[in-house]
Every structure is written in C-alpha cells, then in structure tokens.
Design brief:
By secondary structure, this protein is mostly beta strands. The protein is 0% helix and 48% strand. The strands form two sheets. It has a six-stranded mixed sheet with strand order 2-10-9-4-5-6, with no helix packed on it. Strands 1-3-8-7 form a four-stranded antiparallel sheet, with no helix packed on it. The N and C termini lie far apart (40 Å).
C-alpha cells in the first residue's frame, strides 16, 4: 500500500521560507518520479514541482520557478520542497504524489502565507 506522509507546513509572513518533507513507503521509491502538488479549497490541484527518480532532473511550475527547490533522498525515501520568498498566493494544502499524478494519498501539510 502506497503511503505518503507530508510535514513541514505552517504559517509564515510574506517573504519567509518553509521546507516541506514527504516520507514514502509501500512502493519502490527510488524508481518513481515524484511530484509536489498544492490545492486551494474550491480549486483543482496544481502541480508545483517534479523530480525524476534519481534526482537529476527537476521541473517547476512557472508560478514557483526561482523560489522553490525540489530534492529527494532515495536512502530515506523522502522528497523535499524548499520554499523561499513565499507569497500569499502560495497559501494552499501541499502534498506529494507518485509519478505525474495529482491525486492526494497522504494528509498533506497546510502552508499559510499571511501578515
């Protein structure tokens, strides 16, 4: 059974930083591309960033390019999202997903950017 557990969210002021983590189990993590997704109530999920299986290739949505950095540790079965220069429009529930899926498996972690 695929399990994904996200953590690291919180409330920060605009311009602040957060580092999200996602720990995976139940599948061969080191063989899967991983995606960070965010969702705001009432809107569809938006993919934020992706990283290939060995971590050598990354992709970013235009809205976060230059501010967010995705990485992974295949020993720890974890994928991370370093978020800098946060903006109020980054406020959302963030979660990780396997492959190019955008469906949520784990609880997600809430990020709120507000004064």
């Amino acid at each position: 059974e695929v399990q994904l557990v996200e953590s690291g969210g919180g409330m920060v002021q605009p311009g602040g930083s957060l580092r999200l983590s996602c720990v995976a189990s139940g599948f061969p993590f080191n063989m899967y591309l991983m995606t960070w997704v965010r969702q705001v109530p009432g809107k569809g999920p938006e993919w934020v960033s992706r990283i290939n299986a060995n971590g050598g290739t990354t992709w970013y949505a235009d809205s976060v390019k230059g501010r967010f950095t995705i990485s992974r540790d295949n020993v720890k079965n974890a994928v991370y999202l370093q978020m800098n220069s946060l903006k109020p429009e980054d406020t959302a529930l963030y979660y990780c997903a396997t492959g190019i899926n955008v469906g949520r498996v784990g609880p997600g972690t809430q990020v709120t950017v507000s004064t």
